[in-house]
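Support request from a user on the community tier.

User writes: "When I paste my structure tokens into the form, the page sometimes reloads and wipes my input. The last time it worked, I copied everything first. Here is what I submitted, just in case something in the input itself triggers the reload:"
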């Protein structure tokens, strides 16, 4: 007896066709997960892996870039430092030439540097006459006593610059070795010895950044405590004597522009300076005793600056690199 197969229903017939065609869309596996879902999950995982790998590659490239940049900057910084040092050496040779002259009448100059240091590399060297400034250490003698004449000059310098002259008392207490205050609390935390740098004045109470910026161009702590009459600026000239007026100081500047002073006695030849000129003879010179040298070297984006103070023999009294 033959068993007749019942005809397939339309839906069953469709499924048979799908299997025969190999089209599995719409079917689920034994876990109930669709085949399309499996392909979607694989795609998501692949994208995630690519994203992670891309991130790792980016981080690696960035780290390599940073390390390369650091190495390049370090190399450029070392090179700039060496070039700046060469600028200091060049200046010492130039100072030797200056000292052969009878007088120094240039307060500041920039040396011409013709050496080719390579692409995007430059060097500038500036030399300043440190003797054109007032030596703030001169207000106290080495034995600790007050140099009244120099102290009066410092007070007058402050007055001319419209700065409270009582700050001179605080500076004197900062330098002198005793503990007796000239002002209330002016001996508190005082150094009680000579300044090594003008920058130390910032540590004195009442001498803020604004005041320091106004007085620092006219002060020094180096040299022989004498002011170069050929290069001193107006405020320093006015401070030389209690009777020195702004008009007389300007006449000194006008005179030296055409006739630099070859000896300190020449200042007495100016009208109105006969007596004052005689009084300041022990406070002035006509040649620089010290020089401030600033060598600035640039290699690409890196800059190094070396600042020094040399005496007339080329001996270094101050050195700072930054």
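"...and here is what came back when it finally went through:"
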């Amino acid at each position: 007896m033959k068993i007749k197969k019942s005809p397939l229903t339309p839906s069953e017939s469709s499924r048979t066709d799908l299997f025969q065609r190999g089209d599995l869309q719409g079917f689920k596996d034994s876990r109930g997960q669709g085949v399309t879902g499996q392909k979607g999950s694989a795609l998501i995982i692949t994208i995630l892996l690519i994203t992670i790998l891309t991130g790792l590659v980016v981080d690696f490239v960035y780290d390599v870039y940073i390390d390369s940049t650091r190495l390049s900057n370090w190399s450029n910084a070392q090179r700039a430092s060496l070039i700046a040092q060469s600028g200091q050496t060049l200046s010492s040779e130039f100072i030797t030439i200056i000292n052969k002259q009878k007088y120094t009448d240039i307060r500041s100059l920039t040396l011409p540097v013709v050496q080719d240091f390579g692409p995007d590399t430059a060097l500038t060297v500036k030399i300043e006459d440190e003797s054109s400034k007032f030596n703030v250490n001169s207000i106290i003698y080495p034995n600790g006593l007050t140099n009244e004449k120099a102290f009066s000059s410092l007070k007058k310098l402050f007055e001319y610059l419209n700065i409270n002259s009582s700050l001179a008392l605080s500076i004197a207490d900062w330098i002198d070795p005793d503990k007796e205050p000239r002002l209330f609390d002016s001996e508190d935390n005082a150094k009680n010895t000579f300044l090594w740098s003008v920058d130390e004045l910032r540590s004195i109470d009442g001498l803020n950044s604004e005041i320091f910026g106004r007085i620092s161009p006219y002060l020094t702590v180096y040299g022989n405590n004498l002011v170069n009459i050929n290069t001193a600026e107006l405020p320093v000239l006015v401070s030389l004597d209690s009777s020195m007026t702004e008009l007389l100081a300007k006449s000194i500047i006008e005179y030296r522009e055409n006739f630099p002073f070859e000896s300190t006695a020449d200042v007495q030849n100016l009208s109105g300076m006969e007596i004052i000129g005689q009084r300041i003879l022990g406070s002035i010179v006509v040649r620089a005793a010290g020089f401030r040298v600033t060598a600035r070297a640039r290699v690409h984006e890196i800059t190094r600056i070396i600042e020094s103070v040399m005496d007339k023999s080329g001996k270094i009294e101050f050195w700072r690199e930054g």
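Agent notes: The reload is a front-end session timeout and is unrelated to the input. Confidence is low (pLDDT under 50) at residues 1-6, 8-16, 18-33. The chain has one domain: 36-322. Escalated to web team.
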